[in-house]
Write a structure and sequence with these properties.
The chain has 84 residues and is mostly beta strands. It has no helices and five strands. It is globular, with a radius of gyration of 15 Å.
């Protein structure tokens, strides 16, 4: 994965419900692939740690707050578009 990472921003410690975890921060471009319409790319800061044991997640601040989105859990669909 290191070939997809760009700028290294330094190291950080996250305090989570699973305990404190040390890792590195990188700028990473995330692509949301559309079934209909245009794909959406977002550059964001990503935390990477070999010690991370929790599931992956997208943070609201810095990622999802930059996208208009909706979730339909009955049909397992995620809808998104550009934040206007």
């Amino acid at each position: 994965m290191s070939d997809q990472l760009s700028e290294h921003l330094g190291s950080a410690t996250l305090r989570t419900a699973y305990g404190s975890v040390r890792g590195d921060l990188y700028v990473l471009r995330i692509e949301l692939i559309a079934e209909v319409g245009q794909d959406l790319g977002i550059e964001t800061v990503t935390f990477i740690s070999p010690d991370w044991r929790a599931p992956n997640y997208l943070g609201y601040t810095g990622v999802l707050d930059r996208v208009r989105f909706a979730v339909d859990p009955e049909v397992n669909r995620f809808f998104f578009g550009c934040n206007v």
